[in-house]
Design a protein that fits this description.
Length: 145
């Protein structure tokens, strides 16, 4: 699949894959100067890119494992979604979960990006649902004996 990407900032970097088997590409910070994120703060980090995601697909922004596990920086909304009809600049809302200031440098890899299909559904109200083995068992209810 080809994805049309427009640079809306001159120094933007197109997403790249870290390996042939990588499911997600890396998104890069696109700004002139470092951005410092205080503990508990969320900052919108620009990527300098806009994209034409095809209808029936979404762009999903995930945390980079190294950045989130080692520095405590991860998308504030846990998974960002870029809709197929959005044509503005892709931004990453990075939240600092650590107890120390963290700094993002220009061109640093800040998030992972996956383009995936989704299914649009029609919600239909019913009086009853079919029975399953699990039933109403909620969080932590599977795998118990």
């Amino acid at each position: 699949m080809e994805l049309k990407v427009k640079k809306v900032r001159e120094n933007a970097t197109l997403p790249t894959y870290g390996s042939d088997g990588a499911a997600a590409s890396d998104l890069y910070a696109c700004m002139e100067e470092n951005i410092t994120i205080a503990p508990g703060e969320t900052v919108f980090v620009p990527t300098g890119l806009s994209m034409a995601i095809p209808k029936g697909y979404g762009g999903f922004i995930y945390a980079r494992s190294g950045l989130s596990c080692k520095q405590g920086l991860a998308p504030a909304n846990k998974v960002g979604i870029v809709d197929a009809d959005y044509r503005g600049e892709v931004m990453v809302a990075l939240h600092n979960h650590s107890k120390e200031e963290r700094t993002i440098e220009p061109q640093e890899r800040i998030a992972q990006f996956v383009v995936a299909p989704y299914m649009k559904v029609n919600y239909v109200e019913v009086e009853e649902l079919d029975d399953t083995e699990r039933g109403e068992g909620g969080f932590g209810s599977t795998g118990k004996k």
